[in-house]
Amino acid sequence: MKLVGLLCHTLYTHSRSFFVTLTMKLVGLLSAILYTRIAVLFSHANDEISGSVNCHTLYTHRRSFSRANDGISGSVKCHTLYTHSRYFSHANDKIRGSVTCHNLYTHSPVFSHANDEISVSVKCHTLYTHSRSFSHANDEISGSVKCHNLYTHSRSSSHANDEIRGSVKCHTLYTHSRSFSHANDEISGSVKCHTLYTHSRSFCHANDEISGSVKCHTLYTHSRSFCHANDEISGSVKCHTLYTHSRSFSHANAEISGAVLFSNANDEISGSVKCHTLYTHSRSFCHANDEISGSVKCHTLYTHSRSFSHANDEISGSVKCHTLYTHSRSFSHANAEISGSVKCHTLYTHSRSFSRANDEINGSVKCHTLYTHSRSFCHANDEISESVKCHTLYTHSRSFSRGNDEISVTVKCHTLYTHSRSFSHANDEISGSVKCHTLYTHSRSFSHANDGISGSVMPYSIYA
């Protein structure tokens, strides 16, 4: 969609299902309004507006709404998002012009606002939520910010990849609910009060990098789980203290150039290891940033407990058997990079939650298969540069998400099947030939955004 001189671009939906494939190349379009009264899903992807927009507003009162990759290079007077329904997603919002009022309000169960990039000054950039879930990811603000506060009193809050290059007077996060996550907080300027408090069940603060002075950088928790990973502080720290009175505690990769109160980090093995095995039968297990540069005969992880996390597993040598088994509720294996040959790299799970992100395999893989029969399955950012004989995903559960799948070589059978309620396949880029690239769904909601295929495709079908 390339619109020049768009006065009013408004989308309304009051129904349960909406599917639009719209390709417009118009100059001087005065008004583009779409109404639908059908069912749960609404998808509006890759909306690019190069001209000025007086009123760019989105309203929804239905269960599902998705608007991805909104790029606006002109000026926007009022860019506001309101929602009072169950689900709202606004991703990759880029605004290069001036913004007078950029506010987000929500009072519903799920809210997601990702990749908000604002290169100019913002007078009031505030987020309020009083519902169950809140997520604000990849917030980058290069100008001055007077009041950048986040308040939440609901069950879940997530604020990831917050990068602030200017001065911040009050950057504070408060939560009194069950889950809180603040990841990859990078602050290069001065911070007067950067404090995190939580009194709920789960707390995670990862990859906190502070290059300036910090007066009070303290973390308190009195709940069941606490995780503070990859804390790097190159400046002076007066009070860097970690307290916990709960069942599980994990502090990984703490690098402090000054005084160190507590450090348990960075398991590096440069020689040969015959049996590098971890066993746990308790509720929480965390093993982060395991780097093995030598040969490993048996690198296996077993767990029969509720929570398991194995992040940033880098193996540069040969691995005969790299297998993960779990029969518990939660499993997470992130950033697995294997540069050598792998004979059997297989993941099996029969539990409720499964997540495997950023899987990069540069060598040949004979059998790279994922099976799950549980409620949730997520396989994101799968990059395979070599040939793959059988790369198939099957799921019969309620939720399925597979995003940013990039395959540069031939794929014999790349098929996705789902018979559950939710299916999402976003940003699928295939530059090589694909014999069978088919998506099937028999559920209530379906979203397929940013599908770019530059090579030849024999049967390319979408059924819903």
Explain this structure:
- The structure is a single chain.
- With 464 residues, the protein is mainly beta.
- The protein folds into three domains: 1-102, no CATH class; 121-266, no CATH class; 268-463.
- Strands 1-7-11-15-19-22-25-28-31-34-37 form an eleven-stranded parallel sheet, with no helix packed on it. Strands 6-10-14-18-21-24-27-30-33-36 form a ten-stranded parallel sheet, with no helix packed on it. The protein has a nine-stranded parallel sheet with strand order 9-13-17-20-23-26-29-32-35, with no helix packed on it.
- The protein is globular, with a radius of gyration of 23 Å.
Short description:
This protein is mainly beta. The chain has no helices and 63 strands.
Query: Structural class of the secondary elements?
Result: mainly beta
Arithmetic mean of pLDDT: 37
Based on CA inertia axes, which overall geometry fits? globular
Q: Give the terminus-to-terminus CA distance.
A: 24 Å
Largest sheet descriptor: 11 strands, parallel
Which stretches are low in confidence, meaning pLDDT under 50 for 5 or more residues running?
A: 1-464
